[in-house]
Amino acid sequence: MTRRKIAIVGSGLIGRSWAMLFAGAGYHVNLFDVTQELVENAIKDIEQQLHALAASGLLRGNLSAAEQLTLITGTKTLKECVEGALYVQECVPENLELKKKVYAELDELADDDTIIASSTSCILPSLFSENLKHRSNVLVAHPVNPPFYVPLVELVPAPWTAPEVVVKARKIMEELGQKPVSLSREIPGFALNRIQYAILNECWFLAQEGILDVADIDAVMSHGLGPRYAFMGPLETAHLNAEGMENYCERYGETIYNVSKTLGPVTRFEGEHLQKVNQQLLDQVPLEKLQEKRAWRNNCLASLAKLKQNIDKEQTD
Could you give the residue range(s) of every CATH 1.10.1040.10 domain in the chain? Predict the structure, then answer.
């Protein structure tokens, strides 16, 4: 890419991770938020994260932490942040009216060929881009939180997003070392959250019915499905667990169908049961320990990512 300027709009946890990813790939990153204090605090936190990652050998990219930090600049205005950018990553809160307002401003400031991507986890891109003059340049690039440590990015086009924009966005994500997946069209929840919500619904049902407590339900994933799914998805897992997928379905298809009919109903996560689940989780991780646990999670994810990179390299060598 000849233009190397990236605009990050929103300096929260997701925006900071995006800034680090782009800087690690050598891009010049402009960061904007509604107050200068938010931007300054974000850059201070990014500096701490980069140096901590370097010290633990988990820093991404070929540049040092200090070199990456020099590529990240806070801006005082949205215009300064966006003008001349190759790519804009919007990271404002999940509020449709706010996104409509932000995208109306971005539409006036962005160049005709600037890609404008949203980090939204569930708002369809058509809902905030329909009336834009640059609507063909808008798509969703939904990362997994935190994107610096988990590489998946869902690329979701609106009905009017130009196909070449999705292709360019995918190339940029790959350059960052992320793992993009391209949806053919928008769908509520995209792909990751549709799968995640199906899992959460059944976990909620098992807890509500008293089949397992919260810790044991989470253990089913962290010590059962999770380790396996860290290296291959459920479809390839099924393919390997028999003599191919067709044989798997011959063996287990009827069982899957019969069990699936007994799965818990779609429910609302609220009320008395929410209080019980919440208390069990607070007993495991009190609120004052959340940040410490997040840091532990991030280190685990970074170490796993490094292991997966080495395994992937062995597969291609």
Answer: 192-284
Domain 192-284 classification at class level: mainly alpha
Q: Which CATH number fits domain 5-182: 3.30.70.141, 3.40.309.10, 3.40.50.720, 3.40.50.1400?
A: 3.40.50.720
Edge-to-edge strands, sheet with 152-157: 72-74, 28-32, 5-9, 87-90, 115-118, 138-143, 152-157, 179-182
Provide the token pair at 116: 């404008």
- Which residues touch 117 (CB under 8 Å, ≥6 apart)? 87, 88, 89, 90, 138, 139, 140, 141, 169
The tens digit of pLDDT for each residue in 179-234 reads 999 999 999 999 999 999 999 999 999 999 999 999 999 999 999 999 999 989 99
Q: How do residues 286-298 score in pLDDT, each as one tens digit?
A: 999 999 998 899 8
Q: Specify the pTM.
A: 0.91
